[in-house]
Design goal:
Radius of gyration: 18 Å
Distance between the termini: 21 Å
Oligomer: single chain
Order of helices and strands: EEEEEHEEEEEEE
CATH superfamily: Calycin beta-barrel core domain
Shape: globular
CATH architecture: Beta Barrel
Number of helices: 1
Strand order of the largest sheet: 1-2-3-6-7-8-9-10-11-12
Strand content: over 45%
Largest sheet: 10 strands, antiparallel, barrel
Length: 170
């Protein structure tokens, strides 16, 4: 039986060894697939990227989201598949960066990133591995807090340790 609930959501990603953090607060729709399986669909604000704009006297950096580009103003869709045993998070960015992460405790999962293509020919994703150190899901009947601690790897090089926190307010 598919049921859904509209809830306030706070999603944060923090690096424990790099100067990186990101927080998104928005409303999300929580779909209950069965007793312990949920899908969360939310919209994240557009990515802020910079491009160089040349002028006669100097070059200045202009945030791309201030341009009239349709891709920069389009929302990004985040889809999180949640169970007590695994989490899959997919982000589609309307021509921007897209990704898909698979986390399962004690398992090397796959993280794939698709970068914007400047040509019409298809391009392969960047594939990284992630090792999920801990995955915990708390809540009574509906998920309230999800925490995933993981390491990101490119071949034998560690690309950092991260904590993904998801709070669903009831």
């Amino acid at each position: 039986m598919l049921t859904h609930h509209r809830k306030p959501v706070c999603l944060s990603l923090i690096s424990t060894d790099l100067p990186f953090w990101s927080v998104v607060e928005t409303a999300g729709t929580l779909y209950q697939k069965d007793t312990n399986r949920f899908h969360l669909l939310l919209t994240a604000p557009p990515l802020i990227t910079c491009e160089l704009a040349s002028s006669r006297n100097s070059e200045e950096i202009i945030p791309e989201n201030q341009s009239n580009s349709p891709a920069s103003s389009s929302p990004r869709i985040l889809w999180v598949e949640i169970s007590p045993y695994r989490v899959i998070m997919t982000m589609q960015g309307n021509g921007q960066v897209s990704y898909r992460h698979f986390w399962e405790q004690g398992v090397y999962g796959v993280s794939r990133y698709w970068l914007p293509a400047e040509s019409l020919k298809p391009h392969n994703p960047i594939r990284l591995r992630n090792f999920t150190k801990t995955l915990s899901l708390n809540g009574h009947h509906l998920p309230e807090h999800l925490r995933v601690e993981y390491e990101l790897w490119a071949d034998k090089v560690q690309m950092g340790s991260y904590i993904l926190n998801l709070e669903i307010k009831h």
